[in-house]
Write a structure and sequence with these properties.
The structure is a single chain. The chain has 55 residues and is mainly beta. The chain has one domain.
């Protein structure tokens, strides 16, 4: 089973979400506005982009 790490930098107007794999490669990096529809959209599970893959 692979491990991933996720972090959020919370701010007043925007937040920034980052997901890294076990080797430290960035799988996801997303700026999210601090409003309910944006936060709900960001919290829905999505397949992170994998290096070298077209998804």
């Amino acid at each position: 089973m692979s491990r991933i790490w996720a972090g959020v930098d919370a701010g007043k107007t925007h937040h920034h979400c980052v997901v890294l794999d076990a080797e430290g490669a960035k799988l996801l990096s997303r700026r999210v506005a601090n409003d309910e529809p944006e936060l709900q959209s960001a919290s829905r599970p999505k397949q992170p982009k994998r290096p070298g893959h077209p998804n």
